[in-house]
Each structure stands twice: as C-alpha cells, then as structure tokens.
Design goal:
mainly alpha, 5 helices, elongated, about 170 residues, binds magnesium ion, binds fe (iii) ion
Length: about 170
C-alpha cells in the first residue's frame, strides 16, 4: 500500500517508466511509415531518442531511492491498456489521427511530470528534481511542436490526397 508520500512518489515514477515505454511502442511504428512527412519523421525520431534518455533518468531516480524495479515489466503491460487506442491506426488518414493522439499523449506526460515534481518536493527528494525537470522540458517542447504543426500536416495531407498519394508511398 502507498501509505507515505515517498511511496506515492515511487509508484508515480514506476508509472512514468511504464508510460515512457508505451510512448516508445507508439512512436517507433509511426516513425517507420511516414516517409511523406519528413519533418514529422525527424521530430518523431528525435523524441524517440529523448524518450530513451527519459527512461534512463527515471531508472537513475528509482535506483537512488532504492526502489524495487522488478515490477516494472508488469506495469508496462497495464499501462498499455490505458493507451490502447493511441497511435496504432493504419487508416488512410493515420497521419492526422496520430498527430492528434500524439498531442494528447505528450500532454498526459506533461501532467505526469508536474505531478512527480510536486511529489519529489513533498517527499523530500530534491535530488530527483533535475531529471524530472529535464523530462518535463522535452515533453513541453514536443507538445508545442505538435501544436504548431497540426495545421501544416493537415494541409500537406490534403495536398497529397489531391495528388493521389498516401502517407505510405
Ligand atoms: Mg516522454
Ligand atoms: Fe514525450
């Protein structure tokens, strides 16, 4: 049971670890099938690399708290259900649906790190703040990029449609 704020913090870190693994399983397939959108592809690949670093930061923090990491695999399975509908579509308009789903996912991550930062402070673990801030900054940057790019991607999709192409060609 999570009886202390420290317990809540550790559970939150494990949830974030599962969330980041889910992020990888959403982004990696997307990045392999969007050749028609090179800017999106480049940002996805960049954020995949960042996400691998985020997982490292979370593991470093968990280790510094002497947290048991053995349950992390089970948690990855349970979080998969939360995002089952995100990013797995292969519909003709997948670039649009994925752009919207990715924006939702990044904002979920932003909320998760804000929550973890509050718990790090409240549980007296200031050593965790730097890593969590770094993760938060990357999520904010990705969310802002997706936010600023949705109109351009939509119009590019429409133009490709008019030209009789798909995202896979
Ligand atoms: Mg992330
Ligand atoms: Fe992210």
């Amino acid at each position: 049971m999570d009886t202390t704020t420290r317990d809540l913090f550790i559970t939150g870190l494990k949830n974030a670890h599962a969330m980041e693994n889910q992020a990888l399983s959403i982004m990696r397939p997307q990045a392999t099938r969007i050749e028609s959108y090179p800017e999106v592809e480049a940002m996805l690949n960049r954020h995949i690399s960042e996400t691998e670093g985020q997982i490292q930061r979370l593991e470093t923090i968990l280790d510094s708290l002497d947290a048991d990491r053995s349950a992390l695999k089970d948690m990855a399975l349970s979080v998969a259900g939360t995002f089952a509908a995100v990013g797995h579509t292969v519909a003709p308009d997948e670039i649009l649906k994925n752009s919207m789903a990715n924006f939702a996912f990044e904002n979920y991550e932003i909320a998760a790190y804000k929550s973890l930062l509050a718990l790090a402070e409240a549980s007296g673990n200031p050593m965790a703040l730097e890593g969590l801030e770094a993760n938060l900054e990357e999520e904010i940057a990705m969310a802002e990029w997706l936010d600023s790019n949705i109109e351009a991607v939509t119009l590019q999709f429409a133009a490709l449609k008019e030209a009789g192409e798909t995202a896979k060609k």
